[in-house]
Protein: LacI family transcriptional regulator
Amino acid sequence: MSRVLNGNTNISERTRDKVMEIVKQYNYVPNTLAKGLASSRTYTVGFCYDYTEKQAVSNPFFQMVLQGVEDVVYRRNFLFLMMSMQRDQLDASSFAKVVTERRVDGVLVPTQLFTEAVHSLLLREGMPFVVVGEPMFAQPGIHWVDIDNVQAAMALTRRLIDRGLGQIGIVYDEADKTKDKFVLDRIEGYRRAMGEAGLQAKEATLERLRGMSGNGCGGASQALIFSTESLLLDWLDEADEHPPADSIHLATFDRSPYHRHIKYGVESIEIELETMGIEAADMLFALIEKTELAQPYIKIPAK
Structure:
């Protein structure tokens, strides 16, 4: 019975169905604490988040990643623990306490929170971990899962080019370039697609764009790609004061349900955030179970 309930794949479908029928008949619920005492495991995995980012937990993209993670965790009959952390207060965080006291078997850490101090803590405690998003610094032994943001940006830019648009600019936040690898990758993908088409790349920060006329990056643009959806929304908040030209095409990443409420048309590309959560959780369980991985990272292509 334990092998079936623990998700062991070396069980025939006939045996699995029979065990699950008995479980349902007697309303059996395994005792996680007793299991943990017997195996020196907690049967719990943790996910770290920045509690200073008040909107992070309610962000629909955050929720999609979590949905993928939880699908894997609960399918394996594990518990799921959310842990808070502030970047500059690691020692006082619940994350550090949970890791040092071995209250989980492994952790998932968003790339924005994965600092060298966090990395050192995880290595020192021998805690299996996977970074959700490509880290800003690369070292051997770091496992991570991310969207292929270079490919996503190339695909989005090519789509606009195929529509006959040649004056395409990209907008980013300067601060994001120092802490978010995915923003750097999206800018790189945009540059590659523009270069392949023999077109001039035009780049601007949001602050610089606000001071420009013609709704463009260094002149009138037929289309603007925003490196994040939040940047696009910030710009549109000012649309009543400085409305974009009717002819301009707006584009961003992360196909969001919010886009249908925007009066200006928004082109977007679908990125598999739920798949990202699933792959990150699967990778973490492989590390917990000491299963050999083909490679230390996974890049998920956008559609």
Remarks:
- The chain has two domains: 31-132+274-300, 149-269.
- Residues 272 and 302 are 7 Å apart (CA to CA).
- Residues 60-75 form the longest helix (16 residues).
